[in-house]
Amino acid sequence: MLALARSARWNAAVTIPIYDTFIAPDAAARVSRVLETTFVSQGPVVAEFEGMLSTQLGIVNPVTVNSGTTALHLALVLAGIGPGDEVICPAQTFVASALAIRYEGGVPVFADVDYETGNVDPRSIREKLTEKTRAILVVHWAGTPCDLDEIHAIAAERGIPVIEDAAHALGATYKGQPIGAVSDYTCFSFQAIKHVTTGDGGAVAVREPERAAEAIRRRWFGIDRAASKPSFLGERQYDIEAVGYKYHLNDYSAALGVANLASFPDRLRRIREIAAHYRRELADVPGLRPFRVEPDRESAYWLYGMHVEGRDELIRALHAAGIVASVVHQRIDRNSVFGGPKELPNQARFDESQLHIPIYARLTDEQVEHIVTTIRRGWSS
Ligand SMILES: *Cc1c(COP(=O)(O)O)cnc(C)c1O
Question: Average pLDDT in the 103-132 region?
């Protein structure tokens, strides 16, 4: 009782969180059905979830795995990244993007950010190229696609692959194409606070069909599950040709994914409606500028980001009104594991003023108005 009362008081103080975990009303029943079969590992529901990712969102050859981080690792393995290979990536992201490069002994080389978007600046990617560069890993910050044409042009000149960390960008589009259909590898996350959750989970979309088949083998020890039937002796017949992993998704997680994905197009429409409202209502607020979204792409708005003069004062004003605002992530190159902060001038400016406010489908019109009114009331900067 006491614990409940205390948590209720805390919730009253912080009424609008920055993230939302969406669980569909029929999710529990779908998960229960899987549990009742007692077949809880990878099976038909994983296939159903992968089918939905293709048909509903246009993602090409989605290979589900047990997290966004393992999706990134698998993409880097398939791209052939090995010890000493340089992979250019942004610093404006979650640590998983660059840690995954380290898993194979690769070296993350941090490129500078476009101050107006939070995405990697293609001009900086070009400056960071060396004879050791083997891949370009980009992150669609807040769900807004990067400058993929410019990035692909650089990759094509070098004959190296582009890996997209699209953990924020499920449902985003670039020049009419869905994210998940553009680059060699696109990685998604279905972690608890992402657009669609499976509890934990992820997917790597692999454009080239033979490599997609390899992804399917490598997510399960390197064994071709479909072509390795058990023999009379009782064990599957196989020969592992390349190192594989225990990275597959399971059916009870996929059941959660199937339930949550069903309503995602509607939820994304609502999210974009809120984003358009924020853009209109905040356009003339002095000292505040929302991140730029080019008209040739549609953001998935996992976050709604902006630059703010006197940011810390606005954070305080929002907190006082029961609204959580957040920088979400600060440059990851500062971590010792990556050798400490690099010379990235636009990233340094970006860090000083970036801020994100709540945006998710469950926000009511009243909550959205409360956020807008609180910001419009102003803050001392
Ligand atoms: C969430 C996230 C990841 C990691 O995904 P997990 O499913 O938690 O492993 C990677 N990159 C970015 C940008 C993310 O936001």
Answer: 98
